[in-house]
Amino acid sequence: MKLKQKQFFDTFVGVPLAYLHILLAKTAGFLFRRNHSIEKKQPDEICFIKLLGYGSVVMASDSIHSIKKKYPFSKITIICSKTIEEGIKSLGLFDKVYVIDDHNIFTIIQSSLRIIFQLWLRKQLWTVDLEVYSKLTSILALWTFAYNRFGFYFNEVSFRRNLNTHFIYFNSIINVVENYEQIAIALGVTDFYSYYLPRFSERPKQQTYSYIGLNNTCSEFSQVRKLSEKQMSAICNWICDNTHYKVALLGAPSDRWENENFIKNWSLPTDCVENLAGVYSIDDYYQFLYENCKIIITIDTAILHIAGKLHIPHLSIWGPTTPWSRIKQSDENIALYQPVKCSPCAHFIDILPCNGNNFCIKEIKDQTIRDAIQKMINEHND
Fold it and tell me: What is the rounded distance in angstroms from the CA atom of residue 315 to the CA atom of residue 295?
């Protein structure tokens, strides 16, 4: 199913179902009168729910890792869609990944029921819904009959307070990572630990690199965050003309055709600009980035957060979303953001003020981007 179809289904089916299930939840609460204190009993399994947004799980990884430390004898699992399954598994965070097949409505229902039946066998189950806007994931969590159900709420999904046993306010003006930390605190976490991808320690200071990674690909939902092809061409040509690095155009297998067309349409030198979208398995992809990329230049998408988990310095370029809402400032990153009066808009409004003509990104000057790239190269000498 395409994203718009999923959103339509979630809204027009999810809303009436949600209010119907409120009655179910209240009735069950009255009949069983469970004690939902987290101190009462340790969970056998903590199951996270995140159907869309692989990057969000990467952002939540420190909090999930800290929850694992808090409950070392609990199984840590996740329910995700087939779309992000490979990425989720590559993180090495979860003992099991339950996959909802989102090919069509029938496969969604069938695979969801299969997962629910499996979770019914758990004696002491907790669920953590990491989705922010979804109505149907709240119903999914309810149907697992989890002893404790944790999830976000705010005005747009205020009904969730009646479906979850523990509800955490989602503050849309702070860093998303801090919201995930509030989830962890609700689960009893007091000590937080950073999580990095397995096998990837800090990179040697004097290692030599051959590439600069450049990513302008993102999910269907996030197209408005992309640089223009003119900006991309200017970046590629400057790197090829002014540095000894090659450009590695990054992306998933589905991005390969777009990258090829970009190279061809802008007559970029193929001995310097290489299309690596879909060339490697995801584990080999991470290995390539770690061993070969001096820095990564990217828009606000999953690879930005993966770069941090791989200890790779990164330059991120922002517009419809703001850097302080997604990343923490450090010596390893530079964020370019040109505030305009309608930014941020993504996640706040369905019809964007610019109607998709993201001038907040397009008006960032080529010279500004070039200066930032040069600064990163200088600060992280081979």
Answer: 7
User: How many domains does the chain fold into?
Assistant: 2
Query: In sequence order, which ranges of the chain are alpha helices (DSSP H)?
Result: 3-12, 14-32, 54-59, 61-70, 85-90, 105-119, 136-143, 176-186, 229-242, 256-265, 282-292, 302-309, 359-362, 366-379
| Same-domain pairing of 260 and 343 | yes
pLDDT above 70 for 59: yes
Helix intervals (H) in 104-175: 105-119, 136-143
Give domain status of residue 205, yes or no. no
Contact 250, 213 (CB under 8 A): yes
Tens digits of residue pLDDT in 124-162: 999 999 999 888 898 899 899 999 999 998 887 777 777
Could you tell me if residue 202 is inside a domain?
Answer: no
Q: Are residues 180 and 47 part of one domain?
A: yes
Kindly indicate the confidence band of residue 179, based on its pLDDT and cuts at 50, 70 and 90: very high
Q: Which residues pair with 151 in a beta bridge?
A: 129, 167
Q: What are phi and psi of 291, to 5 degrees?
A: -90, -25
Same domain, 234 and 180: no
| pLDDT value of position 332 | 79
User: Helix 282-292 vs helix 302-309: angle between axes, to the nearest 10 degrees?
Assistant: 60
CATH number of the domain at 12, please: 3.40.50.2000
Asked if the structure places residue 199 within a domain, the reply is: no
The residue whose two tokens read 């991808």 is: 197
Cis amide linkage into residue 16, ω under 30° from 0: no
- Of 135, 152, 186, the last residue of a domain is 186
Q: How far apart are CA 198 and CA 247, in angstroms?
A: 26
Question: Phi and psi for 345 in degrees, rounded to 5?
Answer: -125, -35
Beta pairing partners, 75 = 45
Q: What residue numbers bound the domain in which 220 lies? A: 211-379
What percent of the chain shows pLDDT beyond 70? 89
Question: Do 18 and 98 belong to one domain?
Answer: yes
Question: Is position 131 within any domain?
Answer: yes
